[in-house]
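#onboarding

Welcome to the new folks! Below is a worked example of what a typical request in this channel looks like: someone posts a single protein sequence, and someone else replies with the predicted structure as tokens. Don't worry about understanding the tokens yet, we'll cover that in week two.

Example request:
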Amino acid sequence: MARGSSMATPPPQPPTNTPTRTERLPGRIRDVQRPPHLRRRRTRRILASEGVFDSIVSLAGLIGRPVRNQQGAEIGRLEDIVARWDDGQTYPPVSGLVIRVGRRRAFVPASAIDRIGNAEVLLRSSRLDLRDVVRRRGEVLLAKDVLDHQLVDVEGVQVVRAADLYLAEVIGRVRLVGADVSNATLLRRLGPRRRRPRPTPDRVIDWAVIQPFTEQSGEADGVATEVRLRTTNEGLHRLRPGELADLLEDLRRDERRELLAALNPDEAADALEEMQAEDLEQLLRESDPAEAARLVAAMEPDEAADALRDLPLAVRAEVLRHIPASTALALRQLLGYEEDEAGGIMTTALVTATSGEKVRKVVDRLSEARSHEVDLDAVAVVDGDGRLVGDVALVDVLLALRSDSATRMSALLGDEDVVTVDPHAPLREVAAKLVESRRHSLVVVGDDSRPIGRILADDVLDALVPTKGRFHFPRLLS
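Example response:
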């Protein structure tokens, strides 16, 4: 893509106290009401400044419009606008124009632009060095790469499509400041040509909360077309696993892969665990086996087994082949149980301790298993032969550590018998035992009374409720 002037202007500092999503009303911006759990993340955005909002220019309406020199003579027609978003700036600056001059495509750097209006672009000089269009890393063609493509609104937690993009001058630079996602804007673009340049911002999302995705890769007409997420993804990392799962379910294949690549392994695994089964199956099937294996291996064992169980046998075998041997063996053991029995929903993320161990040492072991904290609510206590003798809640272990870290686990065992379940027990028996014992989880034991896994209450609920995937009630309170 284009070569443009270097960036020296610092990123604009958003004013304090604005909504992200706006509606145009006479003389002011009105905040669109959001549910409280979304409003809490809201911060002030540049589009809340009335001066900026009133000066926005429609990208869709500008494409195909004349580009004029200082004397007003037309030198070409605007084909696209080039912007940069690889340098951490919230509002990407325009770095140049792609214009059509006869049969030639040429680049005009941002330094040559005098004004970008709704119906034309004026340049500073009548003499220009029209350069060939060469895409530079970190630059995007807004009309080609972003307009009409999927975007993620990380504050509204939704996948949207850009019906239009809005530009405005901010701190001495023309910048991309918002995306319009309204149907009215699509109709405006299909309407009479004379009306197309006028922005119709019924539903504008401030660019500060947008994460863009594109499908382009490779090269076309000598122009490299690879575009990636901008390097600042703080908005994504603030989202809950369920919210990320919703986004993954709504995105297309390439965008899903790009979103997953922007997350760290734990975030990606947590999001996959919250996806609906059919969407997760599709994601894994369309992924490269090695990539699918990486994703599955990062998930909790019971969730990973569920994901693999839904795959065709040939695909499942190929994915397991790329998973580390010890993890693959544990997953194969889980897959050996039926989906409607205790072993089919248990997790093997189990922390055990002997009755003679001190609490301090057990807590250290719990710290090492922190990545499985969602599946840990108790410590299975065993005798010298590894047979289960008790199950101690985490809160009791932590309270004992606070009072006397030298306390031994045997001191925390109660008089009541430990409640266990056989791996082949039906789900309704597991649910009945949970209700009767008033516990949040049960230990699964083999024929030799040795613990082999744990079943949490939310796993039972997920298995018994037909619409699986959003009912992790202990996590809902966290």
